[in-house]
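Lab notebook, bench 4. The sequencing result for the construct came back, and we need a structural model before the next group meeting so we can plan mutations. Quick request posted to the team channel:

Model the 3D structure of this chain.
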Amino acid sequence: MDLSGKTIWITGASSGIGAGLATGFARAGARLVLSGRREDALAEVAGRCQSETHLLPFEATDLDALPGLVERAERLTGGIDILVNNAGISQRSLALDTDFEVYRRVMEVDFFAPLRLSQLVLPAMVKRKAGALVNIASVAGKVGSPLRTGYCAAKHAMVGWSDALRAEIAQYGVSVFVVTPGFVATGIADNALTGDGSVKGHDASDPVNQGITPDEAATIIIDGMVADQPEIAVGRPGAPEMALLDFKRYNPEPLYQIMAGMAPQVARG
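Done. Here's the predicted structure in token form:
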């Protein structure tokens, strides 16, 4: 895939992997549409991009606003070539201690919002017989990890939907890339929801905070896209969480035991 001259719309572009992708795509010669909730943060990222850049701030779960936003994005740019569904939130709470509304929130942000935006962007790609979706999932979309039941559910849904969608729309020349990051040092762990919906806050011991940088992650993703790699694993080579991708496939039962051993032990009456 050649990225030069392509118009790329990135959600969750104000920080983390989204910001890293913005600067990386700009260096590759792409034009950008950057979305997120905070316009000031988007403007700061745009200032680091040496390319044509448009800001389109919005709340990912405002589904009623999405048709108008897609019309505006297409009007601004003449058409979206690549949509990067990157906006997301995580979770850190035991299932038995998690309010239902937390599950609903995680699913809305991490699955239904990108699905709906993709539904609105895809028809124009199909008509042109060209385009791509880049869906940022997670290793947690392949492996069940304790304290992340809602996050794993949403990312498993993202992976399954993406794989089925790829099979359906390949005939129209539209690609679907699934990205499975391991530990990337973004704010996702610090902003994870706890069981009552409050934000967890910073925890230096959370292994996600010891991961590769967003710029390193972006480089791996872009290289994978250029190589037309349908599923792109993103993490430090040899890192334990990246080994889980193969472990789940070839030796699942010991993996389940390892994950059970990682779960907090809580006495309950």
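The CA atoms of residues 3 and 161 lie 25 Å apart.
Will bring this to the meeting.
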